[in-house]
Prior knowledge:
The chain is of the alpha/beta class. The chain has a single domain (4-201), classed as Alpha-Beta Complex (Lambda Exonuclease, Chain A). The chain starts with a strand and ends in a 14-residue tail after the last helix. A hairpin with a 5-residue loop joins strand 8 (156-167) and strand 9 (173-183). The protein has helices at 7-15, 17-24, 37-55, 61-64, 78-85, 136-148, 186-201; strands spanning 4-5, 73-74, 91-94, 100-103, 107-111, 114-122, 152-153, 156-167, 173-183. It is globular. The chain is built from 7 helices and 9 strands, in the order E-H-H-H-H-E-H-E-E-E-E-H-E-E-E-H. Helix 1 packs across helix 2 and helix 6 (136-148) packs across helix 7 (186-201).
Amino acid sequence: MPFKLSPSALSLMEECPRCFWLTKHKEWKRPESIFPSLPSGMDGILKVHFDKFRDKRLLPPEIKDHHHTKDLKLFDNEELLKIWRNNLRGIRWEDKEGNVLFGAVDNILVNGKKLIVLDYKTRGFALKDDTADHYQNQLDIYNFLLKKNGYETEDYAFLLFYIPKQVMETGEFVFETVLARRKVNVKNAESLYKQALNILKGACPKESCDWCEKR
């Protein structure tokens, strides 16, 4: 039985292997938490915002003067980026057994022939020292997928955080932006993928969490 895996599925695996096993074997699915609509709405607006600058062959003001983005460009293959952004398609790779790993990116920067993942994050509060750490697996997986599809990638990726700062007298919201450069590790992504398949091919894990203890 082949399996379809994504960064969110691998995140569930790390949180509770038993919930992960039960979900992927379609015996039970942990109830999903309510996803706030504001980050989703921001995500869509930011993609349109960045695309306008891409079409002008420019970088948006949030990142254009940052020392890490000097000489970088936005990925200009519009049709391919539409696929890579699609939550039902994304960047995909299928192994010899028919298992599929996929993930949908927000945007891609280019340095020569090398691609660099750029992911938008909306936060309600100032960043903590370990905030960016929580997205490491996601960035590693995206880079792993790009390499499996034959693309060269840099050994780093970017997280672009948008944090509410103030409301103007006109009612407009002002966001502070923080660009975080993260070193990526595709071996970590490959290890997570292999770990997931090993769990799924074995017996259902016995150790349970509060969600699956009675399943």
